[in-house]
Design goal:
Largest sheet: 6 strands, antiparallel
Oligomer: single chain
Distance between the termini: 22 Å
Helix content: 10-25%
Radius of gyration: 14 Å
Order of helices and strands: HEEEHEEHEEE
Shape: globular
Structural class: alpha+beta
Length: 115
């Protein structure tokens, strides 16, 4: 609905962006010392876990963090993350539930426009 509203209002569409690279723990075999659900922020050969100057970087997210909730919705694959992300407009401030070094915490992030 937000994407359609954006297009109808401005005649253009630009996806909402967080700027992360992740492994979906919901779709992998359990990894020791990691939660059994959520999104593990991890780098690949061609892309860092958190892109510099992205909304994720500005909010303090870093490699090794596990996102476990997005605006109080548990990230357990019931709704694919990218689809959930696109439900929110650019500039929306949302709360992420994060496990960092074994401790759960909340991080506030302002969603951006995909470059």
């Amino acid at each position: 609905q937000n994407a359609l509203r954006q297009y109808l209002d401005s005649q253009e569409y630009s996806p909402t962006w967080l700027g992360i690279n992740f492994m979906d723990l919901n779709r992998t075999a359990p990894i020791s010392s990691q939660p059994t659900f959520g999104l593990l922020l991890t780098q690949t050969k061609s892309r860092p876990a958190v892109l510099s100057k992205s909304p994720a970087a500005l909010s303090g997210l870093k490699e090794g963090d596990v996102l476990i909730s997005f605006d109080r919705r548990r990230l357990d694959s019931t709704i694919p993350f990218q689809l959930l992300l696109q439900r929110y407009p650019q500039g929306a401030e949302i709360e992420l539930g994060v496990i960092r070094e074994g401790k759960e915490q909340s991080v506030s992030v302002i969603l951006g426009k995909q470059p």
